[in-house]
Structure formats: C-alpha cells, structure tokens
C-alpha cells in the first residue's frame, strides 16, 4: 500500500518550510521527496509501516516573510536530499535511532489502542493486544487479554476470539465481534483511524505550545553548507557558508527549491566544462569558475551540499485561543498535503511504486530528523499518523477500509454476510501480500543504508 508526502505546495496562501537534512553529493540531489506508508491486517486489525527513501516535512503557516540577502540570527541548516540510497551520516547517533523507533512504536500503540478501547468499552470480547509480529518476546495476561511484544516490530494487532478454536466462548455469544450489530463493528474497525487523527492533532498542539511553529524567510541564492575535501568545488575555491547568487550570469530565484534545482541542472549538465558562479561571502560578492568532475553516468558533480537560502525562526501563541488557531491551520494544512500526496501517488503509480520503502527506511529518516532537529519529530509523527489514517480508509484487503467495505457490503445485502471461507480468503491473501512485500522492502532498504554498502 502506497502513501506519499508530496513536496508540491498546495493551493494556499501559506508558505512551506521543508525540513530536509542529509549528506549527498550534488550529483545525487533530488527535489521531490516522498514517503510511503504501508498497512497490513493480522488477526483482526493491525498495521505496518513503509517509507520512501526520501521524505520531506512541510510546514504551512501564514508568517512567511522575505528579507535581504544577509539575515540576522541563526540560519536554518537544510541540506540536500539524496535520491539514491540512504545517506544518514552512518546513523551515528543511537539516541536518534531510538527516538525514531519510539515515535513509530507510539503510533502503532495509539492505532491499536483505538481498536482495543472501542471494543472494550462496548463489552466486546478481546483476546490479544500485540505490538509487532512473529515470536513473542514478552507477554502478560490481564482480564483474559494477552498483551505481548513480538520479534518483528512491523506493526501490531488486536485479536478477537471470534473464530479461535481454543476459545471457550460460545460461538453465539452476543459479545463476540462478529455477532455485534453493524454499527458496533464499524466503530471498532474505524477507531484506529480516528485515534491516529486525534493523536496527530494532539502532537501538533503540543508542538505549538512547547516549541512553536516554524517561520520561513527566503533570501536570494543557494546556500553551500558543506564542501567535500578534494572536490571540484574545494579545488576551485568554494567554501562552506558561501551563497551562490548566480550561475553563468543568470541570477538564481529567491524560491528555495527552484533555485537549488536550477543550479543542480546546470552543474549536472556541464561535466568538465567551466561553470561561472557568482558567490556571496560575508559582505562581498565575486565570481568563481568551477569545473565539475564527471560521474560514471556522464553527469557533472562539484562535491558540495546545497540548501535553499532560508532562515527559520519560531512563532509561539500568545494565548490558548491563538494556540488552537495555529494548531487548526497547521493540522488542516498537513491533511491537505497528505490527501494531495495520495492523489498524486495513484495518478503516477508507475513512477512512485519504485520509491516505496520499508520500516528500516522510515526509522532511518526519523533518526536523521531527530539528529538534525528534534523539533522535526513533532512533524514526523503527525504526518505519519495522518498518512496511516488516510491509507487505512482505502477499501483494500488487509486494511481497515477493506474490513469496513465488507461490513457495508453486508449491510447492502440486507444483513447477509459473505461466506466465512470467502471472507477469510480475501483477508488472508491481503495479509500474505503485505507480509511478503514488507520482507522484501526490509531487505532492500537495509542494503541501501550507506554503512551497509560500505561493508559489502
């Protein structure tokens, strides 16, 4: 199942601030980060995550401002994102990896807790609550429910004893999920989605109160955060902190993404040919000629990291009412991005399918976010929650939407259920497909990690 965080701005007056931080040579720069999430169904209700190798976090806010080239205050260190492989600085910080894994685990727990509480509060029998799949690592029992943590943290599930041959509950018990009225079952199935939506709103609200919302200020040119040793840029005199204002006499636009893209295109298209750069360093402007080295594919590279020349600051609400106002605008802005991204994914499925990745990638991306800017974890968690909520409503096997579709089909048939064997085959086929896809993506994403590539 595919889902994406689109980098294309929605039709809104709000500005977008992209939190992207990676270490990639200019020849690998990509400007359309996307993220995909997958969900599976096990036992009754469960899910697992997939993420693309590229991820962008967008903040929509009304505080956008444009100023002169030399801003005062701290400049945002936003680096280019690599298209090929995962370059996360070797995942050097174990703490950042743990933070990303904790975010993922929290989202799993919230989703499954939604299903569990919806059933429990209605008096529906629940037999299992699990985080992860496969062999049980730890478990305990309480109130006839087995709570477990399992070996493969790809998701989780809430189990019901409806068709459990070992259960001593009579098959005609009115508190079995399958024997409950349609509305009761709809509430249980949809509760995970509702829980993730509420959790996303709460996360944004906490962000607004604790750290504030980011404000983007755009400045002319493209920032050079880092220059690689012995690279073409280093040989020809570029330094970290330089601002590239023009290329071959053409002024770069103030819009960050388009400016970076324009510069990258020129450099990639000029291997072994001199490229004239107008550079701002401190209060001085001067020109530097750089001759890009040639990649194996014939494109040029100069060995620098690039980022939009922007400054990020924070805006905090003055009172609780303003906090709710900020949260609402941010929440609906993110919802709009998620829906637009999903639309673009399905409209361009042949292109986006190859970019789907697994839980290894999502933790790697989350770790990079945590390592570069802990505040970004708020947005990381909120977007994952909203993506999961939207994708789960799709009427496909192994998704909550698939279960809801079967219930609505039952209602349309006048309360007559599909044959149990047919329903189980539909769900089992969906589960098997997602599990196989998940295993494939885990292996592929692990091999794409840079520190793994260095070992091979």
Pattern of helices and strands:
EEEEEEHEEHEHEEHEEEEEHHHHHHH
Helix content: 40-55%
N-to-C CA distance: 30 Å
Main sheet: strands, sense, barrel: 7 strands, mixed
Structural class: alpha+beta
Radius of gyration, in angstroms, nearest whole number = 25 Å
Mean pLDDT: 75
**How large a portion of the residues is in β-strands, by DSSP E?**
15-25%
Q: What is the approximate shape?
A: elongated
**How many distinct helices?**
11
Low-confidence stretches: 1-92
How many E-type strands?
16
Report on the structure:
The chain has eleven helices and 16 strands. With 456 residues, it is of the alpha+beta class. The strands form five sheets. Strands 5, 9, 10, 11, 12, 13 and 16 form a seven-stranded mixed sheet that branches. The radius of gyration is 25 Å and the shape is elongated.
Topology:
Layout: E1 15-18, E2 29-30, E3 45-47, E4 58-61, E5 65-66, E6 81-82, H1 94-120, E7 128-142, E8 145-159, H2 182-210, E9 213-227, H3 232-235, E10 243-247, E11 250-251, H4 256-268, E12 275-281, E13 284-290, E14 293-294, E15 300-301, E16 304-315, H5 320-347, H6 349-352, H7 359-372, H8 376-392, H9 400-412, H10 420-448, H11 450-455
Parallel strand pairs: 5-9
Antiparallel strand pairs: 1-4, 2-6, 3-8, 7-8, 9-10, 9-16, 10-11, 10-12, 12-13, 14-15
């Amino acid at each position: 199942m595919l889902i994406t965080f689109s980098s294309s701005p929605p039709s809104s007056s709000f500005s977008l601030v992209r939190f992207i931080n990676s270490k990639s040579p200019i020849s690998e720069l990509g400007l359309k980060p996307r993220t995909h999430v997958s969900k599976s169904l096990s036992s009754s209700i469960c899910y697992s995550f997939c993420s693309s190798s590229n991820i962008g976090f967008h903040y929509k806010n009304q505080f956008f401002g444009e100023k002169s080239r030399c801003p005062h205050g701290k400049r945002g260190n936003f680096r280019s994102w690599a298209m090929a492989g995962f370059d996360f600085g070797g995942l050097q910080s174990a703490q950042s990896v743990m933070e990303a894994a904790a975010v993922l685990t929290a989202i799993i727990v919230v989703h499954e807790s939604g299903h569990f509480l919806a059933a429990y509060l209605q008096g529906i029998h629940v037999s299992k609550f699990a985080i992860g799949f496969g062999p049980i690592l730890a478990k305990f029992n309480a109130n006839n429910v087995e709570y477990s943590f399992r070996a493969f943290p790809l998701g989780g599930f809430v189990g019901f004893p409806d068709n459990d041959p070992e259960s001593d509950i009579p098959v005609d018990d009115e508190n079995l999920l399958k024997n409950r009225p349609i509305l009761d079952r709809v509430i249980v199935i949809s509760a995970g989605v509702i829980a993730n939506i509420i959790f996303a709103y709460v996360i944004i609200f906490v962000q607004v109160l604790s750290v504030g919302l980011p404000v983007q200020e755009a400045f002319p040119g493209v920032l050079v955060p880092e220059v690689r040793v012995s690279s073409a840029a280093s040989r020809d005199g570029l330094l970290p902190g330089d601002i590239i204002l023009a290329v071959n006499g053409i002024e770069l636009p103030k819009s960050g993404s388009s400016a970076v893209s324009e510069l990258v295109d020129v450099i990639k298209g000029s291997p072994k040919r001199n490229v004239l750069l107008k550079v701002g360093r401190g209060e001085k402007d001067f020109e530097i000629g750089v001759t890009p080295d040639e990649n194996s594919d014939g494109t040029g590279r100069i060995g620098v990291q690039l980022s939009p020349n922007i400054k990020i600051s924070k805006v905090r609400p003055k009172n609780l009412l303003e906090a709710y106002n900020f949260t609402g605008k941010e929440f609906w802005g993110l919802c709009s991005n998620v829906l637009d991204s999903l639309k673009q994914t399905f409209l361009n499925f042949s292109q986006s399918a190859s970019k789907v990745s697994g839980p290894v990638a999502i933790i790697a991306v989350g770790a990079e976010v945590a390592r570069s800017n802990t505040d970004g974890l708020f947005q990381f968690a909120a977007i994952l929650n909203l993506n999961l909520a939207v994708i789960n409503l799709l009427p496909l096997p192994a998704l909550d939407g698939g279960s809801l579709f079967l219930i609505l089909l039952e209602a349309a048939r006048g309360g007559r259920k599909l044959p149990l064997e047919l329903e189980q085959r539909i769900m089992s086929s969906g589960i098997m497909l997602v599990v196989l896809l998940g295993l494939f993506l885990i292996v592929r994403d692990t091999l794409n990690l840079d520190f793994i590539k260095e070992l091979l």
